[in-house]
Amino acid sequence: MPHFIIECSQDILQQKAPDEIMDAVYSVAESAGLFAINDIKVRLQPYQYYRLGEHKNNFLHVFGYIMQGRSTEQKTNLSKQISTQLTELLPDISFLSVSICEFEAATYSNKALINPENKNHDRHFGL
């Protein structure tokens, strides 16, 4: 936790390397101070086939999934910082957007939480 999933049109990867795009999102998430060290995950999925509005060439959207508990202000700031960083990196993009959604702690599970040795139900157990 958190997960940042970048979806974009294939041609975006002709403008910037995947690592540059993922590093931009990772660095903002890391500097936000909202997440445990080494807990941030970023991945990128390009699309070859997509449809956009007239005279629109490409797109990039970041889906941020984070554990509940952050304020609206913190989530807004994170979204805006990611948007700003990516706009600087890709100034000519047609559509660039970011959304931050929360996981509900009560319904979240991971490998650490099901470990029988994790008596305190710490989702970072063993990391």
Description:
InterPro entries: 5-COMe_2-OHmuconate_Isoase, Tautomerase/MIF_sf. One of its GO terms (molecular function) is 5-carboxymethyl-2-hydroxymuconate delta-isomerase activity. This is 5-carboxymethyl-2-hydroxymuconate Delta-isomerase. It comes from Chryseobacterium nakagawai. The structure is a single chain. With 127 residues, the protein is of the alpha/beta class. The protein has helices at residues 12-15, 18-31, 72-89, and strands at 3-9, 41-47, 59-67, 95-103. It is elongated and about 55 Å long.
List the helices and strands and how they pair.
Elements: E1 3-9, H1 12-15, H2 18-31, E2 41-47, E3 59-67, H3 72-89, E4 95-103
Parallel strand pairs: 1-2, 3-4
Antiparallel strand pairs: 1-3
State the secondary-structure class: alpha/beta
Number of alpha- plus pi-helical segments: 3
> Could you list the spans in which at least 5 consecutive residues all have pLDDT below 50?
none
Question: What is the 3D shape?
Answer: elongated
Strand content: 25-35%
H/E topology pattern: EHHEEHE
Q: Averaged pLDDT, please?
A: 93
Q: What's the count of strands?
A: 4
Describe the strand arrangement of the main beta sheet, using strand numbers.
Answer: 2-1-3-4
- Rounded to the nearest angstrom, the radius of gyration is 16 Å
What is the helical fraction, as a range of percent?
25-40%
| Biggest sheet descriptor | 4 strands, mixed
Cα end-to-end separation: 12 Å
